[in-house]
Amino acid sequence: MAMGLVLALHGAVGVLGAPALAALAAVVALNAAVSLALLAIAVRAFPPPPIVTMLVATACFGAALVVR
């Protein structure tokens, strides 16, 4: 739960806290890198539910990079 909350808040800060920054590819890339790191931790340390949520978040950030 905590890892999902961290990732959600990280994305929210990027999108809601600074809309101009959310439009920058570097910020989206940072979000993708953070979610990928959290996914790696989830795979090594947690059961499937956090892994699935981290995988979904990573896929969303990755898709945001591809759309650019």
How would you characterize this protein structure?
The protein has 68 residues and is mostly helical. The chain contains four helices and no strands. The chain has helices spanning 2-17, 19-22, 25-45, 48-67. α1 packs antiparallel against α3, α1 (2-17) runs parallel beside α4 and α3 (25-45) packs antiparallel against α4 (48-67). The mean pLDDT is 80.
Rounded mean pLDDT is 80
Number of strands: 0
Helix content: over 70%
> Taking Cα atoms only, what radius of gyration do you get, to the nearest Å?
12 Å
List the uncertain runs: none
What shape does the CA trace take? globular
The percentage of residues in β strands lies in under 5%
Helix-strand sequence: HHHH
**Structural class by SSE content:** mainly alpha
Largest sheet: number of strands, sense, barrel closure: none
How many distinct helices? 4
Summarize the SSE layout with pairings:
Blueprint: H1 2-17, H2 19-22, H3 25-45, H4 48-67
Q: Which features does this protein show?
A:
68 residues, mainly alpha, 4 helices, globular
Task: Kindly summarize this structure in a few lines.
The protein has 68 residues and is mainly alpha-helical. The chain has 4 helices and no strands. The longest helix has 21 residues.
